[in-house]
């Protein structure tokens, strides 16, 4: 079981609302305990390998004011890439019955809300640090996103 599998398991447990999950295979034993403050992972491997490892996963910060912005590195080099500042679930609307925050072709201003990323039951509004026109939305609605994952391409001209 690699780190990516463990991260996916943590996300699944956090969404399920379970307080403790134990997973045992031939060579790995993992216990995930969730609490109000943090998630603790205990992983044990067979003798001769790492005996026990604990990794606390801190709770997501309070609402995030702005997303990191960097130039895109492809044929779209004239566009600015808006990246995810946190790990979580990406949402394009504030709620299912509300309209989308932004659409392709829409002009945005600095400080406009582009999306929401849910992390540990907190909904964080992601605001634009640039003004321009949304060229492309790189993530599907209700999809998990990683830290620094590209979310939007914006044409600043």
Task: Provide keyphrases for this structure.
single chain, 157 residues, mainly beta, 4-stranded antiparallel sheet, 13 strands, 9% helix
Write up this protein.
The protein has 2 domains: 3-58, no CATH class; 69-155, OB fold (Dihydrolipoamide Acetyltransferase, E2P) (Beta Barrel). It is mainly β and 157 residues long. The N and C termini lie far apart (46 Å). The strands form 3 sheets. It has a 5-stranded antiparallel β-sheet, with no helix packed on it. Strands 1-2-3-4 form a 4-stranded antiparallel β-sheet, covered by helices on one side. It has 1 helix and 13 strands; from the N terminus they run αβββββββββββββ. It has one helix at residues 3-16; strands spanning 20-24, 29-34, 38-44, 52-58, 69-71, 80-83, 88-91, 107-108, 113-119, 122-127, 132-137, 143-145, 150-155.
Structure, briefly:
With 157 residues, the protein is mainly beta. The chain contains one helix and 13 strands; from the N terminus they run αβββββββββββββ.
Strand composition percent: 35-45%
Any idea what the shape is?
Answer: elongated
- Straight-line N-to-C gap: 46 Å
CATH architecture of the largest domain: Beta Barrel
CA-based gyration radius: 19 Å
Please outline the major beta sheet. Answer: 5 strands, antiparallel
Instruction: Kindly report the name of the CATH homologous superfamily of the largest domain.
Output: RNA polymerase II/Efflux pump adaptor protein, barrel-sandwich hybrid domain
Fraction of residues in H or I helices: under 10%
> What would you call the structural class?
mainly beta
Number of domains: 2
- Count of DSSP helices? 1
Spatial sequence of strands, sheet with the most strands? 5-6-13-11-8
Spans of 5+ residues with little confidence (pLDDT < 50)? 47-55, 58-62
Per the CATH scheme, the topology name of the largest domain is OB fold (Dihydrolipoamide Acetyltransferase, E2P)
**CATH level-1 class of the largest domain:** Mainly Beta
Multimer state? single chain
Q: Average pLDDT value?
A: 78
> What's the count of strands?
13
Order of helices and strands: HEEEEEEEEEEEEE
